Amino acid sequence: MATKQKGSSNGVKQVEAPANGAPQLEIRNPVTQELIGYVPIHNAEEVRAAAERARAAQPAWEARSAKERAYMLRCWGDLLWQKRAELMRIIRSETGKNETGAFLEVYGVHTAALWLYHNAPRILRPQNRMPLIPVIQRAKVYFKPHGVVGCITPWNYPLYNGFIDLIPALVAGNSIVVKPSELSPFTTQFCVDLMVQAGIPKEVVQMVTGDGSTGAAVIDNVDYVSFTGSTATGRKVAERAAKRLIQYTLELGGKDPMIVLEDANLELAASGTIRSALENSGQACVSTERVYVTAPIYDKYIERLMFYARQIKIGAGDGFDVDMGSMTHEREVKRVEAHIKDAVEKGAELVYGGQRRPDLGPLFIEPTILTGVTHDMDVMREETFGPVIAIMKVKDADEAVRMANDSEYGLSGAIFTRNLARGEQLARMLRNGDIGINRTYAVAGSHALPWGGRKESGLGRRGGPEGLLRYVQPQSILIDTTIGAIPGLTLLDTLTFNTLLVLRVLRRYIPFL
Ligand code: NAD
Prior knowledge:
Blueprint: E1 4-6, E2 14-16, E3 23-28, E4 35-40, H1 44-63, H2 66-82, H3 84-95, H4 99-124, E5 127-129, E6 137-145, E7 148-152, H5 160-171, E8 175-179, H6 185-197, E9 205-207, H7 212-221, E10 224-228, H8 231-244, E11 247-251, E12 256-260, H9 266-278, E13 288-294, H10 298-309, H11 330-345, E14 349-352, E15 368-371, H12 378-381, E16 388-394, H13 397-405, E17 409-410, E18 412-416, H14 420-427, E19 434-437, H15 442-445, E20 454-455, E21 458-459, H16 464-469, E22 472-480, H17 494-509
Parallel strand pairs: 7-8, 7-10, 8-9, 10-11, 12-13, 12-18, 13-16, 15-16, 18-19
Antiparallel strand pairs: 1-2, 2-3, 3-4, 5-6, 6-22, 11-21, 14-15, 17-20
Bound molecules: nicotinamide-adenine-dinucleotide.
């Protein structure tokens, strides 16, 4: 049956469904261009109804213990793992990524669920705190969920970047409205269906599909927004959420620097650069996009980098030995090409790659190495989000840190050095949310660690206790036993006044009081 096609601002095809004429999105495999399926573009009214269903289901979900909720999420994680072959196939069909990338998404979310299972009940447990007047009073802090959390997610890691934020929100007792990217809704659909199989009530996790208008409607109907996506959209999300005075976290774009010091193990640094810059064809918020190499080892580093670059296997095939897959969308490839062109026109040298590979698929582009870049070039200032390694020679570590900090972004970063103490010291001088020394991507995989951006890379943190506690509002309850209490109209009756004076003196010396 014929479908009518329309354009859309984000380049994803909208079509009118043959049955009822309602607008739908057409989802295609980026490698084969085969049609995967259609999803509806939910309008504001449909989103409101989904949020209402989630809101009605939330109190019963909150009434369960954190341990029970975390156990259900662990069961869900086990199901993900059991069904990983099918899940990886869906992820790869929507994104074009290689098998390694799809596996790591499943592994990352499964182990995040395990971390929450073991740690969330303890982190969310009510805490006893010191009241104004000890002994006579008791004080407790409870951690109450916000209510309905809206998760708006991107396409580059449709499983990881959606569920790494969604599952702590659930464990904290919130219900969810999730809006996946218009490019990759079926991964989310599969995982939400598995949640029902794991015993999570189906009203608790509502999925809506569509474009930016659907995302905007989510913000209008929830109590908290967890957004992962571009900095440009993040700003709109923040403005919309601010109008409603609801809290939000923003995981946004990055322009991550890597510093290679003269004492680095060059084999690890060169191969590590390739891995870090080309993961998911460079379509990772935490991929290395700028490399600063100190002068004494610059030539040797470039030689080793070229050695490893020549060994990269790209293609759409299966197997963990395929290092790089396809990019996901034509608009992304075009931006990568524009950055390469801009750099070369401004004097950079294209020393490797840079060409499309239509023989492999319509959206393949070769791993690309640019040298002699400067901070006047787009490739060093704007998020490239593609398989481009831009390298700059610097005099020493001080200059490297200065250049690394010369960016509007501040997500992750990396330093390669054999001097671990110096590496740590330099890392603390970088204005980024996290730094890996001699290893990248490990912070994102360490579930006890918070990560997220500074500057235009975002607000708030995911992961660790911090990533869980953003989904609750502390509620303090103070209980006065009324021992010694006398009726009175002043806050400073004689007994209280004298007690406070004594406590003031004691509090100078006793830290826990
Ligand atoms: P995007 O900003 O285009 O879209 C993200 C999501 O927001 C999608 O679901 C989209 O439909 C929705 N959206 C669009 N307009 C909206 C609006 N006005 N209101 C509400 N929602 C709206 O981003 P993308 O292209 O899907 O993802 C790539 C970007 O995400 C890159 O910049 C990347 O660096 C960033 N990212 C950041 C992290 C991180 O953890 N910091 C992780 C992954 C990706």
